[in-house]
């Protein structure tokens, strides 16, 4: 009610609301109070600290998220909030939220840095955007809503993911070698595919199922503008109109007609309401703004009640009520996994198809995707294990917060002649642990490579992996995890880890200290230690 009255202070504003979503990654489990505080920071970043907003926390999805609905009209001045460059302001807010609460920084449009305790955004280097163009040339683009919706209804994976590597290669070869449109249609038809114009672009449709994908998902060279430039004006296949719409069943046509009738009735009613508001506005000229806004609000409420009555009399038609798309296959964990991580699997497939793509940096986002995508099988059954071998000498260790939520990952590699080496991310919140959580002895180390070596030698101890520069949150977590048990801190490089030793012994003055000055090094100094980082296998 209050937000509606405030919105009436600026009747010229077509859409007085602003809606955005804050989402947390797989494994992260923030408290409701932290989510509300994060929403407050995001609202302030938009310059709306005095505006009205509502935050709704949802935990009904794999990713915990919060919806924030903001009233753009200031409740006192009636001025509209500017949303110019809101993408940059919200990204800066996300980086500030992560820095404040100790959550790992996710990947965004910008890089970020902390200068004198203040988080700032930094433009990404040109190499990043060159890599983006290479991805688009390889067809690594988001799915349209229609593709994903169809997949969820019919129980099949999107056509792009069901095509084998051989079929993708054959389709690309057919379109590259075609000298005119008729030859292109004939060669694709032999593969069970059609090339259809749709809007300003094109779709590739499977003949047997009717499933489709944007043509550019096989590569940007197969998009409609590129092929028109090479083959001339688009010519449809013989016996086929230039722009084909998929045939619709009688149930779907009935559903579309009912929906169109309802839409027309509501549009006529809204036109009538607009005329009533304009006439009332003419009569209220000269009145104080607050009083005029109250009269308009009463009229809006009457109109909303009228509209609600119409919607009850003529409810929104449902597809399933007409028997459309009513048969959906039962949920398959493997299919759900492949659908959730399809973009990473497509990238692996594009590399195997011969496209030259930029190597993804092993930042937190990359490591999180690798951790949850799994290796060797499409379903990772052992979610409790915090140590995973990836192949090619790589291993990952999960870092958890005080409530068991995943806050980061350590990447370790075994190199010939050098042993275990750390591939250290920029930011590592949380703690890693190896061994029995109920062990009587706890060993605290500063890096993952040392933790793996010591855990192999001391199987009866719980090895706690911190950071070389632990913050107050980490040291408090170390103390809570150790509790009344005996503990020792192991320092492999006393010169470089003096700060780590000082911070741990300050919080735990009774902890034992063991210095291993002759221990092998822990940080990998290869020119490119991530070159052979394995990636999950695609479906084909």
TrEMBL record:
<feature type="region of interest" description="Disordered">
    <location>
        <begin position="130"/>
        <end position="155"/>
    </location>
</feature>
<protein>
    <submittedName>
        <fullName>Relaxase/mobilization nuclease domain-containing protein</fullName>
    </submittedName>
</protein>
<dbReference type="Pfam" id="PF03432">
    <property type="entry name" value="Relaxase"/>
</dbReference>
<feature type="compositionally biased region" description="Basic and acidic residues">
    <location>
        <begin position="132"/>
        <end position="144"/>
    </location>
</feature>
<dbReference type="InterPro" id="IPR005094">
    <property type="entry name" value="Endonuclease_MobA/VirD2"/>
</dbReference>
<feature type="domain" description="MobA/VirD2-like nuclease">
    <location>
        <begin position="2"/>
        <end position="103"/>
    </location>
</feature>
<feature type="region of interest" description="Disordered">
    <location>
        <begin position="519"/>
        <end position="540"/>
    </location>
</feature>
């Amino acid at each position: 009610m209050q937000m509606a009255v405030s919105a009436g202070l600026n009747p010229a504003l077509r859409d007085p609301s602003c809606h955005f979503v804050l989402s947390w990654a797989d494994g992260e489990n923030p408290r409701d109070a932290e989510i509300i505080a994060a929403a407050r920071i995001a609202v302030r970043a938009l310059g709306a600290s005095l505006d009205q907003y509502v935050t709704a926390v949802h935990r009904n999805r794999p990713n915990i998220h919060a919806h924030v609905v903001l009233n753009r009209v200031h409740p006192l001045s009636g001025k509209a909030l500017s949303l110019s460059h809101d993408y940059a302001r919200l990204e800066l807010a996300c980086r500030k939220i992560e820095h404040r609460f100790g959550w790992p920084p996710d990947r965004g449009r910008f890089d970020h840095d902390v200068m004198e305790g203040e988080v700032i955004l930094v433009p990404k280097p040109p190499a990043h955007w060159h890599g983006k163009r290479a991805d688009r040339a390889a067809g690594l683009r988001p799915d349209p809503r229609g593709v994903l919706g169809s997949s969820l209804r019919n129980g099949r994976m999107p056509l792009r993911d069901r095509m084998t590597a051989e079929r993708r290669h054959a389709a690309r070869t057919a379109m590259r070698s075609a000298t005119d449109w008729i030859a292109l249609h004939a060669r694709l038809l032999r593969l069970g595919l059609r090339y259809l114009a749709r809007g300003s672009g094109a779709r590739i449709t499977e003949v047997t199922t009717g499933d489709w994908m944007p043509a550019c998902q096989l590569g940007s060279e197969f998009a409609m503008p590129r092929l028109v430039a090479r083959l001339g004006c688009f010519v449809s296949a013989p016996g086929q109109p230039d722009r084909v719409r998929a045939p619709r069943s009688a149930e779907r046509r009935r559903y579309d007609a009912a929906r169109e009738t309802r839409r027309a009735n509501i549009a006529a009613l809204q036109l009538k309401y607009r005329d009533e508001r304009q006439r009332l506005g003419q009569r209220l000229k000269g009145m104080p703004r607050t009083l005029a806004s109250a009269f308009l609000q009463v009229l809006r409420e009457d109109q909303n009640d009228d509209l609600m009555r119409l919607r009850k009399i003529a409810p929104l038609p449902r597809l399933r009520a007409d028997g459309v798309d009513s048969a959906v296959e039962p949920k398959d964990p493997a299919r759900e996994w492949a659908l959730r991580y399809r973009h990473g699997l497509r990238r692996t497939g594009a590399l195997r198809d011969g496209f030259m793509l930029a190597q993804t940096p092993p930042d937190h986002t990359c490591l999180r995707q690798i951790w949850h995508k799994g290796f060797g099988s499409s379903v990772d059954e052992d979610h409790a294990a915090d140590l995973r071998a990836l192949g090619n000498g790589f291993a990952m260790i999960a870092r958890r917060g005080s409530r068991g939520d995943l806050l980061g990952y350590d990447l370790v590699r075994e190199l010939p002649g050098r042993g275990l080496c750390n591939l250290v991310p920029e930011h590592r919140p949380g703690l890693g642990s190896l061994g029995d959580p109920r062990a009587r002895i706890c060993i605290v180390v500063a890096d993952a490579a040392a933790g793996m070596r010591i855990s192999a030698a001391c199987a009866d101890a719980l090895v706690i992996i911190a950071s070389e520069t632990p913050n107050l949150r980490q040291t408090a977590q170390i103390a809570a995890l150790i509790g009344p048990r005996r503990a020792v801190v192991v320092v492999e490089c006393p010169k470089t880890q003096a700060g780590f030793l000082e911070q741990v012994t300050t919080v735990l003055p009774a902890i034992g200290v063991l210095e291993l000055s002759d221990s092998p090094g822990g940080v990998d100094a290869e020119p490119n230690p991530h070159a052979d980082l394995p990636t999950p296998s695609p479906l084909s």
